[in-house]
Every structure is written in structure tokens, then in C-alpha cells.
Amino acid sequence: MSTKPEASDVTAPTSSRESSETLTITDNRTGSTYEVPITDGAIRSLDLRQIKVDEDDFGLLAYDPAFMNTASCRSTITFLDGDLGVLEYRGYPIEQLAEQSTYLEVAYLLVHGELPTKAQLDDWTHQIKMHTFVHENVKSFIQGFRHDAHPMGMLLGAVGALSTFYPDANKIHDAENRQLQTVRLIAKMPTLAAFSYRHNMGQPYVYPDNDLDYAGNFLGMLYKMTELKYQPDPRLERALDILFILHADHEQNCSTSAVRAIGSSLVDPYSAIAGGVAALYGPSHGGANEEVVRMLLRIGTKDNIPDFIEGVKAGRERLMGFGHRVYKNYDPRARIIKKACDDVFEVTGVNPLLSIATELEKIALGEEYFVSRRLYPNVDFYSGLIYQALGLPASMFPVMFAIGRTSGWIAQWLEMVQDPEQKIARPLQIYTGERRRAYLPLDSRS
Ligand code: SDX
Fold first, then answer.
1. Full-model pTM
2. 87, 126, 368, 419: most buried by Cβ count inside 10 Å?
3. CA of residue 277 to ligand 1 center, whole Å
């Protein structure tokens, strides 16, 4: 959830507002009171450390497992309003970007903060196209995986391995170097993803075709066979480009927080983003789109939906693709993806699972269990239906998410590296274990 200072907050606070922009805390253990400043709707947790019972006291901590109510950074990249279902990249509503922009233009916007001029976009596109190849050794690296290795596991390994091909990438305080690695990561992610797919299929790798646009080139690396030139269907290419836009960034989600935390140790961006791929792999996060399709296949027919919903309400199942830590309203991306389904199915034929998914959504949104918990479809509920219609296996769905999210991860990494307030991420803990125990020799232990 983003808290954005209202216009009134950013003007010079009057003396009365200055005094009111504080929290008065009374520590009932000591009777002492403290004035803690409130800025942009937050207090600094470190301001709590002054609250002590005596001089030996470490001071008060804020305990927040899973960071349910903790802002880890100040950011200008993505704004979310979970109650209103609002998503903006650099202030531009996601609906406008999905409708009028392209993924590479959005990637530029996320990384540079402004929409590019034509010259800037042409140069950016050229740079990306000049970096789509990977070192030939990467192919043998991917060949080392089992034929049925999960492609997210292969992507995770391959992205991390890129750090060994570009040892200079650890010069993270060099702006030019950061930009080179930014371009390389956005350019090479589709190539690594496609190589992982082709490895699973037992098919030869297809090299990038720089005559094609970003999404079309990716489709070519997935599906080109003996034809001399792969010709992507423009409707599928556009639908895929929109999906990459919708997945590009989402403020401090699990995988982005992982990228920021790993990057805070000043490691290179490939290693940090490999950590992002690892976090995204999980079924509670980017792996949910794969689980949605497996869930729909398991439900099988509309007649089985009531029993499945009962299983969810009884806690035996999770309705995958539903619910969100921030959105307590319809995820705006899910709405756009649902619309994109129609464009794709016009080419591929309707995915038979669509009717089960829409019926499941309709029934769930009428059930008190979901309404009371404000559980709505999220970005993963419908996206898998499109990927499946494009001919991809469910295991490739989180890989598709990772391709889009790469520009967001790198934009967030760039912001973190240049943020003077940031340093190595190292949370504290509340220790609840034993203390000062005497060592027991082996033969004295029962
Ligand atoms: C993404 O953070 C981001 O921005 C992520 C993302 C991005 O772009 O980066 O948007 C992408 O990861 C989307 C989420 C994909 N995951 C899923 O679809 C998996 C299913 N959803 C859930 O596991 C869950 O909703 C989460 C993980 C998404 C959110 O979990 P929270 O915020 O920790 O909520 P919770 O688990 O505490 O749930 C609150 C209540 C619980 O019930 P009670 O204990 O109060 O009785 O809601 C229930 C949960 O059991 N609940 C669900 C449910 N999601 C929450 N019950 C059934 N089915 C679900 N999907």
C-alpha cells in the first residue's frame, strides 16, 4: 500500500500543523511521554528506541512479522491504492499504459522516471536489441539441467550465472555500468526464459531475431521451428506485450523486497535479481498463476465449483489467484487481463477453462467468506489462461511473470542503490529462546 503525501502535506507546515504532525506516546511503565514526528503518514521506527525503562534498556522495537505495516523505503516508481484498486507507474494509470504504451516504453519509464521521446525510445530499443544474445556457455549451463527441470529453477540459476559472465557488474556505484547491466537484464531475460522452455521441449535453442519487437522476438525464440523467418501473430504479440506491461512493477512486493534486501549488500544486480526470481517462484507470489490453472483443471467442471468453494471455506483449499496483501478491491490488472483473453482467444480459440474461471469468480464474489475477507481476483487469476492458450505449459507461467517484472526489479534496485537513506538491510528480532545453557557432554544427554 503506498502512502503518498497529500498536496497539503507538502506545503510548508504552519506552526499548528507542525505541532500536530507528531505522535505523543506515554510509556505507562515509566510515566514518561515522548513526541515522535509523523512524516508522510509514518513514524520512524528508530524514534521508538528512545523509549526505555532504564539506561540498560535497548529501547522499544516495532514488531511486524511479514512487514504487514512497515514501509521499507521511499519510492517514486509505483503507486498503489489497495482500497480503490489503483495502480500507477511513475504516476501514469496502468489502464492508460496497457492501452497506449509498449513494454519497452514502460520499462524505460520505470527505469528513467519519464516517458521517452521518440529518439530516446529508438535508442533504448536499439540498445536492448543489441544485448539479447547470451554467452554460448550459458547454453551448456542450461543443458546441465534435467530435461524436466522446472523452468523457474533454470531461470533462477541462469540469471545468477550471468553475474559470472559480467564480473564488472559489481561496480554498482558507476552510473554507466548500472545502465549497461540494466539493458542487459531486460534484453536477456526473454532469451534465458525461451532457452529454458526449449530445453524442456528437447528442441534446439532459437537465437534472438532483432527484426522482431520484444514480445514477437520472445514468441519466435519459443516457437520457431524449420521456417526461415518466424512471423508472430500481431494479436498474440500485442496481448503478450500488454501482459509484460501489467507485470512490470508492483512496489514493495515479496520479490522486489528480496531484490532490494540482497542488493543492499552491494552485490551485483544479476545476483540480486536471481533472488527476485527465487521469491517470485513461490505459489503465494508469482507461482500462483501456475497453481490457478492446476486448480481449474482439478475442479474440471462448473458442477464441481460448489464443493470446491466449500473446501476453501473449510480451509482445505486456497482459491489461487484470489486475495492480495494490498488490493482489498478488484486488482486492476486482473480486469485488463480478462479483457485481453478475448483478443487472444479470437486467434487461439477459447480456453475451455475460462468458463470455469468466470463461474468460480462469480460464485466466490457472492460468498460471505470472500466478501468479508475482501478477496478478489488478482493478477494471477486469468493470466495463466492466456499463457495456456499461447501453448505454454503451466510451469512456464511464473517465468512469463519474471520477464515482465525484470524492468520493475531493476528500477527498484537502481532506486535503492542511489538512495542515501538506504544501507545494508538487517532487521532485528525478538529472542524467545533459551539463555546461557551449560554444555552437556554427549554421554550425559538423554
Ligand atoms: C502476487 O504483493 C504483490 O504486489 C504481489 C503481486 C505482484 O504484482 O508482485 O501482486 C503478485 O503475488 C499476487 C498474489 C498471488 N497469490 C495467490 O493468488 C495465492 C492465493 N492468495 C493468498 O495466498 C493470499 O491472498 C496472499 C498471499 C496473496 C495474500 O496473503 P495475506 O495478505 O497474508 O492474507 P492472509 O493469508 O493473511 O489471508 C487473510 C485471510 C485468511 O483467512 P483467516 O485466517 O482470516 O480466516 O484471507 C484468507 C486467509 O485464509 N485468504 C484466502 C485466500 N487468500 C487469503 N482464503 C482462500 N483463498 C485465498 N486465495
1. 0.94
2. 87
3. 19
